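Lecture 7, part B: from sequences to assemblies.

Below are the input chains for today's worked example.
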Amino acid sequence: MRPQEIIAKKRDGGRLSEQEIDVFIDGVCSGSWPDYQISALIMAMFLRGLDRAEQEALTYAMLHSGSVLELSAIAAPKGDKHSTGGVGDKTSLVIAPLAAACGLAVPMISGRGLGHTGGTLDKLEAIDGYNVNISPTEIERIVNVCGFAMAGQTDDIAPADRTIYALRDATATVPYIPLIVASIMSKKLAEGLDALVLDVKSGSGAFMPEYEDSLALARELVETGRKFKVRTEAVISDMSQPLGRFVGNAVETYECIRILRGETEAAASDTEALSIELTARLLNLAGLADGPEAARMIAADKLASGEAFERFRRNIELQGGDCRVCDDPDLLLPRGVEESSIKAPRGGFVSAIDTASMGNAIGAIGGGRTRAEDSVDHAVGYACTAKIGDHVAEGDYLGVLYSRGGDGAAQAADRLARCYTIGDEKPLPLPLIREIIS
Amino acid sequence: MRPQEIIAKKRDGGRLSEQEIDVFIDGVCSGSWPDYQISALIMAMFLRGLDRAEQEALTYAMLHSGSVLELSAIAAPKGDKHSTGGVGDKTSLVIAPLAAACGLAVPMISGRGLGHTGGTLDKLEAIDGYNVNISPTEIERIVNVCGFAMAGQTDDIAPADRTIYALRDATATVPYIPLIVASIMSKKLAEGLDALVLDVKSGSGAFMPEYEDSLALARELVETGRKFKVRTEAVISDMSQPLGRFVGNAVETYECIRILRGETEAAASDTEALSIELTARLLNLAGLADGPEAARMIAADKLASGEAFERFRRNIELQGGDCRVCDDPDLLLPRGVEESSIKAPRGGFVSAIDTASMGNAIGAIGGGRTRAEDSVDHAVGYACTAKIGDHVAEGDYLGVLYSRGGDGAAQAADRLARCYTIGDEKPLPLPLIREIIS
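Predicted structure of the full complex, as structure tokens:
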């Protein structure tokens, strides 16, 4: 079947068969479909739509375009959490050791920051020596010892997604739910999981800011997980402002270690709460707790007892990192960088934060990437002092920027100041967890 | 402006500004837009649509992506004919010398056959030595001597179209009127014409078979020509069966030389009639005749007098071809090839011909190309004996295939036989010229 015939069928609004979708994904992997044919079909899918059967066939073909983790020798139920991405969204670093301490095996494969959102791998690499480039065999060994491993995506996991995602990024075809579902689920299903919890962000810092879009995405993700026989739930969580106190790489790791040490700062209580809730959802799905309430109790206990913290320390050792950050988290605080305070231009209530713009401002000074091949500066970041609903007087701190100085810093500070809307009325509070789709 | 922003705007149904279209075409020419971004935007244009202002801006940008023929030293009005392509559509070889004999300067830039349609350049190259690869300077010199020149598209004429057309062909985005208009008109306007006649084909051998589509295309072509200050008309002509007696390269040139010699066979009367009509339209548009009826008289006279034939002979000399075919057209008839007769499987009236399939059958044995880089076999072809409305008895000849034998020939013969629908009722005759859009 020629690529043109498949493209023309979707162009005219036809429904692609499993066989046609297989031919497409085979062509992506073998290189027999050049980039321009892939991107033409993707645009036609975006504009003409994919129904659920097509979405599932695409997920299946992309999942089987590479290899699947073989962890059957591990007796414990296997689970993972995936977030659609946000600003200050650092819960993976708490959830993985916490779920492991509760008896789950967590083979967590994560990504790097791109655009306005941060990435788990970049945060972990703020720990000296921490190695995320580990093989499936090492993942298995490390999960066996400490209950979890944190790895980057290898070349053989869902290779079709890598090609397609890069093209979608370059051709303005990212924000379409069936393509997002196939991309996320083809990678997560390759982990060979029993349970999966999806943290779908909603609000100004989310990839799709509108609540209705987040809800639709969450439903499709859960439906697809089920279809592939993985117990799956989605939580829609608020991303109308950064999660927790810090945005950046080293500072976010700092915030997580403080939580794991039982030293959660007030400004990081949302990070802790969301980490416990997502862990509890995982435990419940995996059959390790008798209902969500019991699961929350177990997770909170294992956090308070320091068992999750010990798992994290053990994992850092196993993945080659410098464990001194566990005993002295302050080592991760910004050093040798310039601090600039962002101040309120008027008094009133913080009524809205342009969170994506905030993420982009930090990204632009090295906290994130514009292109996948860029490197990040782990030390730069932002302490988000004032959150939505807080009252500030003119000149009060809204936050503190940690940067390398120069024009870039001045531009970032200016951009950060413009992220805040200050009004006269106290805004209605938004719950951290807006919906649970099970 | 990043390509993604322009692609996203069209993806969401926005109207592209002239500036955005210029950025796109500049990116195509400079290579700063990779193929996958071009094809994503083209698919979005296809599915979201381009309005007339966008179509004109695209034509303008593509026209000015390269150079325009500078023929201002030629005093005569300059005119050309362009066909949307058909099977057996060979009128260029008659029209160019005939219009030249009537006083028009014809700098005709033509294409090669692709898919089921033939190309003027391939037909001319059936004449030994005939060189279509001539420079703008040579075009000017030859037009000055004999009134017309027949050349291939050079690299500097509308280079953006070459890139975009190749991608459209590979991504199923060819059949969309605004893209077709921009492609045709950017090349034709680069000839610096005073008058242009477009032969828009309709029927089973046309690129867009439906009459309504041909009509819409014709109207847009004429409107665009006017906008660019070229006197433009379109003729919608019948392509529900091959034009004339022959399909192929050498045999079509044979048919034209016979017409120019005043020896038109009955089966080629439609080729002659259409050539006279299109030439007359051009003369009238260019102000060389006092109305269409007078123009037809002039054209018929110049054909009958042999003046057009002498122009053709002179042109062959100037373009390096072997003039013996003028004195002995039989030199172009098939030699050393195998002849297979296609016979009627039942008696009745030929009620329909799948003309595109007929073109593809001849193309598959070397008469045309599947890919632009393929070469053609000038000798192969088909004599189309029975036309629509003809009554045949079982076993009567429908046509004769000239091939190189072997499996390919057997398959072509089989395919040709299946192109005919034979029924019990005599079909209503379709006029050769279905509409004139001026």
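Note for the exam: The longest strand of chain B covers residues 195-202. Keep this in mind when comparing with the next example.
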